[in-house]
Amino acid sequence: MENQILITGASSGLGRALVEALSGDGARVIAVARPSKRLEALKALPHVQIEPLDLGDTKNFEVWAKRVAQDHGPLKAIVHNAGIQHTRRFRTQRTLILCKRSP
């Protein structure tokens, strides 16, 4: 397919906006995100196919990628928009001491 684009992180935020805009312009979009109702909802958009995948699960990635390549054919572009969020406390006693020492 000439204008086929794979977008990761497609179920929300910038990824979802890209799926909506590109499919609205007639591009075939393969929307990739962790399995969820938000990803499923993208099937209602024109020219969109979904491919559930948790990119943090590296064990199954190679099998998934081969199947997607076989099922969908060549891509014009990949938008790797998926992110992983790690949270931790920023202000600890140590960071406060280091901040006080800075000029």
Describe the structure.
It is built from four helices and four strands, in the order E-H-E-H-E-H-E-H. By secondary structure, the chain is of the alpha/beta class. The protein has a single domain (4-101), classed as Rossmann fold (3-Layer(aba) Sandwich). A four-stranded parallel beta sheet has the order 3-2-1-4, with helices on one face. The model has no long low-confidence stretch (mean pLDDT 87).
How are the SSEs placed, and which strands pair?
Layout: E1 4-8, H1 13-24, E2 28-33, H2 37-41, E3 48-52, H3 61-72, E4 77-79, H4 93-101
CATH architecture: 3-Layer(aba) Sandwich
Structural class: alpha/beta
User: What is the N-to-C order of secondary-structure elements (H for helix, E for strand)?
Assistant: EHEHEHEH
- End-to-end gap: 58 Å
**What fraction of residues sit in β-strands?**
15-25%
Strand count: 4
Spatial order of strands in the largest sheet: 3-2-1-4
Please compute the radius of gyration using only Cα atoms: 19 Å
Topology-level CATH name = Rossmann fold
Q: Helical residue percent?
A: 25-40%
CATH C-level class is: Alpha Beta
Number of helices: 4
Integer count of domains: 1
CATH homologous superfamily heading: NAD(P)-binding Rossmann-like Domain
Q: For the report, how would you describe the main beta sheet?
A: 4 strands, parallel
Mean pLDDT: 87
- The gross shape turns out to be globular
Uncertain ranges: none
